[in-house]
Amino acid sequence: YHQALQSLQGVEFSDAFYHMAAKIIQLKSYYELEETEPFFSLLEASRKYIRRNRQLSDYQKQSNSGFLKIAGKLKNLRLQIGIT
Protein backbone atom coordinates (compact mmCIF):
# COMPACT_ATOMS: atom_id res chain seq x y z
CA TYR A 1 0.00 0.00 0.00
CA HIS A 2 2.87 2.35 0.74
CA GLN A 3 4.32 1.72 -2.71
CA ALA A 4 0.98 2.45 -4.37
CA LEU A 5 0.72 5.75 -2.52
CA GLN A 6 4.26 6.72 -3.49
CA SER A 7 3.64 5.84 -7.13
CA LEU A 8 0.44 7.88 -7.34
CA GLN A 9 1.62 10.88 -5.35
CA GLY A 10 3.27 12.87 -8.13
CA VAL A 11 1.16 11.77 -11.09
CA GLU A 12 -0.93 14.34 -12.97
CA PHE A 13 -3.92 13.00 -14.89
CA SER A 14 -5.46 14.82 -17.84
CA ASP A 15 -8.50 12.54 -17.85
CA ALA A 16 -11.00 12.87 -14.99
CA PHE A 17 -11.84 9.15 -15.07
CA TYR A 18 -8.23 8.15 -14.42
CA HIS A 19 -7.88 10.90 -11.83
CA MET A 20 -10.79 9.45 -9.83
CA ALA A 21 -9.51 5.90 -10.26
CA ALA A 22 -6.19 6.97 -8.74
CA LYS A 23 -7.94 8.73 -5.86
CA ILE A 24 -9.94 5.59 -5.11
CA ILE A 25 -6.75 3.53 -5.00
CA GLN A 26 -5.29 6.10 -2.61
CA LEU A 27 -8.40 5.93 -0.41
CA LYS A 28 -8.24 2.14 -0.29
CA SER A 29 -4.58 2.35 0.68
CA TYR A 30 -5.23 4.87 3.46
CA TYR A 31 -8.07 2.68 4.73
CA GLU A 32 -5.89 -0.43 4.88
CA LEU A 33 -2.98 1.46 6.44
CA GLU A 34 -5.38 2.93 9.05
CA GLU A 35 -4.40 6.48 8.11
CA THR A 36 -7.49 8.28 9.39
CA GLU A 37 -6.67 11.94 8.75
CA PRO A 38 -5.36 11.48 5.18
CA PHE A 39 -8.34 9.21 4.45
CA PHE A 40 -10.95 11.78 5.45
CA SER A 41 -9.05 14.63 3.82
CA LEU A 42 -8.89 12.79 0.51
CA LEU A 43 -12.52 11.69 0.89
CA GLU A 44 -13.69 15.30 1.16
CA ALA A 45 -11.39 16.50 -1.65
CA SER A 46 -12.73 13.73 -3.91
CA ARG A 47 -16.33 14.69 -3.16
CA LYS A 48 -15.57 18.29 -4.13
CA TYR A 49 -13.75 17.16 -7.27
CA ILE A 50 -16.79 15.14 -8.38
CA ARG A 51 -19.15 18.06 -7.78
CA ARG A 52 -16.98 20.53 -9.70
CA ASN A 53 -15.75 18.36 -12.56
CA ARG A 54 -17.58 18.63 -15.88
CA GLN A 55 -15.68 15.81 -17.63
CA LEU A 56 -17.22 13.04 -15.56
CA SER A 57 -20.48 11.60 -16.86
CA ASP A 58 -23.53 11.49 -14.61
CA TYR A 59 -23.01 7.75 -14.22
CA GLN A 60 -19.37 8.23 -13.19
CA LYS A 61 -20.34 10.93 -10.72
CA GLN A 62 -23.06 8.74 -9.24
CA SER A 63 -20.95 5.59 -8.95
CA ASN A 64 -17.92 7.41 -7.52
CA SER A 65 -20.10 9.33 -5.07
CA GLY A 66 -21.68 6.05 -3.97
CA PHE A 67 -18.27 4.50 -3.39
CA LEU A 68 -17.12 7.53 -1.38
CA LYS A 69 -20.27 7.44 0.74
CA ILE A 70 -19.84 3.75 1.57
CA ALA A 71 -16.09 4.12 2.18
CA GLY A 72 -16.75 6.95 4.64
CA LYS A 73 -19.38 4.90 6.47
CA LEU A 74 -17.05 1.90 6.69
CA LYS A 75 -14.22 4.03 8.06
CA ASN A 76 -16.51 5.65 10.64
CA LEU A 77 -17.84 2.26 11.69
CA ARG A 78 -14.31 0.91 11.99
CA LEU A 79 -13.40 3.86 14.23
CA GLN A 80 -16.53 3.50 16.38
CA ILE A 81 -16.07 -0.17 17.17
CA GLY A 82 -12.30 0.03 17.35
CA ILE A 83 -11.40 -2.45 14.64
CA THR A 84 -7.73 -2.31 13.77
What does this 3D model show about the protein?
The protein is an all-alpha fold and 84 residues long. The protein contains four helices and no strands. Helix content is 79%, strand content 0%. Helix 2 (16-32) runs antiparallel to helix 3 (36-52) and helix 3 (36-52) packs antiparallel against helix 4 (58-81). It is globular and about 40 Å long.
Main features:
single chain; 84 residues; mainly alpha
SSE layout and pairings?
Layout: H1 2-9, H2 16-32, H3 36-52, H4 58-81
Helix pairs in contact: 1-2, 2-3, 2-4, 3-4
Helix content estimate: over 70%
Mean pLDDT: 94
The global form is globular
Whole-angstrom Rg: 13 Å
Give the total of domains.
1
Low-confidence stretches: none
How far apart the termini lie comes to 16 Å
